[in-house]
Design goal:
304 residues, mainly alpha, 3 domains, two-stranded antiparallel ribbon
């Protein structure tokens, strides 16, 4: 008997079981070459285990499908080979971590910039609404100057808006501010203060050009909104982690629960903050023209 054969027989467990176990791993790994890779929400990293990729989840094989190579027997190896062509049972999975545990301050600052733009759009919509909806008279709309804005922000008052505006619509948007911060990895207290900030950006910013700051809105929007946001965290999280498996109804519900987070996600994709999506670029162009002189312009580029 050669020395190599002697070393093979000294291995613990029968040699054929070890060989069959190794061959099985090669077969399993090679059979998953066309598996679909998806990323966990909030992580940005694909998750893989034992050669499998199942909708962003990490499968854990049950005990009967595991092989301890150093102590494998011939019977165990033959059993696993026989099972190789059978569908695997539904495996337990590691739940994705969402909301993220690491705050994304840059992303939230970007969201705040988007929000200021949305608020100006909302202001223009309210401007064209009748007084019965906006509570802004024609006189309010005609006189805009810095002195009026200073008066409005320094003299908060109890507004006379309809009850559903103050106690349904405002808490709804307070919840949207709260969930946007939660989606960026901030804790509950941090998200509450972000809701407070966003509410007052509108109250003492855009809206103050037309009317005095509202005492109810200053407090009701972030407080009631954050409570509502905490109540919605469960279904919101469940919808987000579904990823591409969401139905149309799920997507509509997610937009209703988290309108800012979902819209900001799409705006990020548009401006190329998420790799692999459309990027918009503006590039100044300056050059000579025939006959003398210089021309200047802007070049718009789209990458997708």
């Amino acid at each position: 008997m050669s020395s190599s054969e002697e070393r093979w027989q000294r291995l613990p467990g029968a040699g054929p079981g070890l060989l069959l176990g190794f061959l099985l791993l090669v077969v399993v790994a090679s059979s998953t070459g066309s598996s679909h890779a998806s990323a966990l929400p909030g992580s940005g990293e694909p998750v893989a285990a034992a050669g499998f990729l199942l909708h962003g989840e990490m499968p854990l094989l049950p005990p009967e499908f595991r092989l301890d190579l150093p102590s494998a027997t011939l019977e165990q190896g033959l059993y696993l080979v026989a099972q190789a062509d059978q569908p695997l049972p539904e495996a337990a999975s590691v739940a994705p971590v969402f909301p993220p545990t690491k705050p994304d301050g840059y992303g939230l600052a970007r969201d705040t910039g988007y929000l200021i733009g949305y608020q100006f759009i909302g202001f223009l919509v309210l401007y064209v609404m009748p007084e019965s909806v906006s509570n802004w008279s024609e006189e309010d709309k005609e006189h805009y100057d810095f002195r009026k804005w200073m008066h409005n922000v320094t003299h908060p008052t109890v507004d006379e808006d309809k009850w559903w505006i103050n106690y349904i619509l405002h808490p709804y948007w307070g919840s949207a501010y709260y969930l946007d911060a939660r989606g960026r990895g901030f804790g509950r207290w941090g998200s509450f203060w972000y809701s407070f900030l966003c509410s007052n950006l509108y109250e003492f910013g855009t809206e103050a050009f037309a009317e005095e700051a509202s005492v109810q809105d200053i407090f009701v929007t972030p407080i009631a909104g954050s409570i509502l946001g905490m109540m919605l965290e469960g279904p919101w999280r469940d919808l987000v982690v579904k990823g591409k498996s969401r139905s149309t109804g799920d997507s509509v519900l997610l937009y209703l629960i988290d309108p800012l987070g979902q819209v900001n996600h799409q705006v990020d994709r548009l401006f190329g903050f998420e790799s692999g999506h459309t990027a918009v670029g503006l590039l100044p162009v300056i050059g000579p023209v025939p006959g003398g002189g210089v021309s200047a312009g802007v070049q718009l580029s789209l990458r997708w």
